[in-house]
Amino acid sequence: MLTGIGVTIGQLFCASALAIVIALIFGLMRLSSNKIILSVATIYIEFFRGTSLLIQLYWIYYVLPLLINLNLDAFNAGFIALGLNFGAYGAEIVRGSIQAVPRAQWEAGRALNMSPYLQMRRIIIPQTFSHLLPPASNLLVELLKATALVSLISVTDLMFMSKVFNQTYWMSLQVFGTALIIYYILARFFLTPFLRWLEVLAARKMGKTLG
Amino acid sequence: MAWRWDFAFEILPQLLWGAVYTLMAAGIGYLLAVFIGLIFMMGQRTPSYVLNRITREVVEFFRSTPLLVQLFFVFYVAPQFGIKFSAWNAAMLTMGLHYGTYLSEVYRGAIEAVPKQQWEACKALNLSIFRTYGRIILPQALPVALPGMGNYLVGIIKDTPMLATIGVVELMQSANTVGSLTYRFLEPYTMVGVIFLIISLPTAFGLRKLESMVSRRQGISKQ
Amino acid sequence: MNDIENTEEKPIVKFEEVTKRYGDLIVLDKLNLEIKKNEMVSIIGPSGSGKTTVLRMLMTLETIDEGVIYIDGKPLTHMRSKGNLIPADEKYISSLRSDIGMVFQQFNLFPHMTVLQNCIEAPINVLGLRSDEAEARAIDLLGMVGMLDKKDEHPSRLSGGQQQRVAIARALAMRPKVMLLDEVTSALDPEVIGEVLSVIRKLNSEHNLTMLMVTHQMGFAREVSDRVCFFYEGKIAEQGTPNQIFETPKNERTKQFLSAVLNAN
Q1: Given a cut of 80, is residue C196 above it in pLDDT?
Q2: Is 1.10.3720.10 the CATH number for B5-217?
């Protein structure tokens, strides 16, 4: 069971790392005035959000190796599918939080003759965090739950180990009940406080105190 | 491996039947969730502190744990207590509960979005609690709730493949069956992906239209 | 256009036949305006008359539809290419933009930085000052506007009047040739308007800064301005010394406006 938890956490880490990178890249692309960049980003996001995660997972693990000569092992296929999918949702959050910064801040930067790059880096992005963290936290909890799906392509995570125990011992209540409780503890007592702490940090940077 | 159109057409009917089951599962599960969500939301607004806390914890529990694990729990554990669920019923119940909690959060947010002054105006006019909710509060909460409700409708459709794991025959399961019989996975899985797109994109589009229609009918402008 | 009074001095700001449209609406209509060095010009007029647009265009926050804007003899909105004027590119404009400073109605301080950081950010990253130089300059300016004791506070802790004074220091830190003030007291509570006005008064009397001020504070405009321009429907309806405009307005619209404003007080 413990190794299962380790694998689940490993999936969470790798997938969120990938998702963050993708969210940043595609989120910024969605703000581009270049039609091509904008379309590419929109298509990517709509595709991954519009189709089922499970199908993407199966596709990357079973079908992709057939099309191109890329043989992914289950663990890699798992977190890559999760990362690509959740990155798409993350991109919209990134875009939304940048757009939430008042236009006047851009103008103040411009009045001081700051280049767009400078404005983005020093003025805008630091101000996105308060709009970014709440939806991002929800997304991260969703990601934790989604890691259970990789058990279906035989990644030996918590869910997979639970099924194995169930088939060996048939103590379904204890096995799945424990699994549920572990997920719950991970989400409520590890993830959520960590994310709340990030929110407090971000607010402090803005000189505010959170209630 | 090359794509074979003849094979694709051959398995299309089977997949389409699976799609029908998917839509049925999603539809029934969603309707259940809509009602269960209302119950969960009400449970958190009762004057009784105990009831509030219990409801709150139940909601948090369902929201923080994977649907997949919940499915297995309900399906395998219930028989140990003497309740025999068919795969279909277990699936509907679990989805209803799981998505019910999500929807209850959406309802909560929507009701909280209605300005406090509206409640005060109702009190000042001495409206009954039924009229307050039914004629004033809920109609104003509806446009706020719709986007969230719509998102979860699309979400529940995309989650139906999980039901295959406890043996419910739907779209994903049909693809699995085809694949394991013929050892060809390329066409089934790709077509399933396409079918999902075909289901979810118009649904999302239709939902947006519904949202703007409701907003317009209430005289709220949408930018 | 010839200045009879100051033939040796070139105007520091010149609007030449400047037109700005929003769709069908003409916001500025072939505007001709010159500002001399060290001059303090107030722009007054009803809403929608184009006053703020004049400032925003000079600060390059809006684009120009027709005409040319010159700053200190050089074209701002256009650049010279083989003897002709073509629309300027961003690189050219940013080489001149530091000469213009603006203070906004809503202050627009950066909320995630302290007062001091707000004032050193652009001098360091745009003008290339060393951080000790930028800090020294900022401390100097914050002292002048009376906000030195709050230099490590975040804007959210300050009142509107305090934030606006910091905004003035922030703009001055770039050592602009022209300062633009866009209704800088309109968003303030009455009791703090005075502290901002005294800073502006100080800038005008002690530092002789060239300033272009859009304002509704008629009394203040009258007290500190060298010249007052009355805008109406995108054109200068009348301009002159404060005495000329406030005591003996000639234009019908000017009279209407002034009587409406004075009656409201």
Answers
A1: yes
A2: yes
